[in-house]
Amino acid sequence: MIYLFAGEDQYESYGRALLTAQNLASKSDSSINVVNADEISDINYILQLLEGVDMFSSTGVLVLKRFLNNKKFVEYFFENFNKLNEFEIVIWQDSKADTRLKFVKAVQTKKLLFNYDLPKDGEMKNWISLKTKELSIPLTPAQITFLFERIQFNKFAVINELQKLSTYIKAKSLKRIEDSVLEDILGLSIKGDMWRFLDYIGAKNKNKAIIEFSKLTKYEENTQLLISMIDREIRLMLQYKYAKANGHDTSELKLTPFILKKVADKARNFSENELKELLKKLFITDLKIKSGLVDEKTAMLVYLAEL
Question: Which domain holds residue 89?
């Protein structure tokens, strides 16, 4: 069967996709193969994994990440849907699935399309509260709101920050966290501040952005997290500019007043074309990193130098 997990809530969709793959593999006592489908160009690579042609592979559960980005693959899967549907295939897409695509419609017909939308503000705060309880982190409702205002709906980033807080609490044997301590820890990686780093990018201050990036990545392998945060920052600025240019109410962006003001201030420093070019360069940089063509830190330093 072909399963498709997608939506703007990437944390939930990816978690459900992996859980489904694990359950399928457990039932059939088989292995799981995870493939970044947007990084390969030959459909035969996927077919070999499915059919166990390669002596080093085995027929099991195949997880295809960002599969819908490759139009040729999508067309092939639709044309051969019935045959491919005999295999256990779990597809994860990091955006909402386009139900106009014939392949997506075919999966939807089987009732195996699962779209995960972003939660509402209150739902997100409740989710953060639940995670703090799971990690035994004593945050007050006001502190949870503060955390939400800083990170918004990026659940991966929330988990990353909560794990830092959990480590700090255990090391200090704390029963409560002062607001000043929370502000000092939040977004910090040893000596670097992720939020200050993003502010420097928004201010076009490439020299300080490079210095902060070096601090952030000195002791932690967090380049992919930083890339995702830069991507989010640029997209927010583009959405803000689009809303203003077309006479839309910026409240439709569903940002808190605190975040909206910061986005507005940063967006004034860029033209729409500049932001689109930055987004394009970030995508190319990320692709080169994931393809192993460049060192990730070096590639990001080059990217920042071109702000």
Answer: 2-115
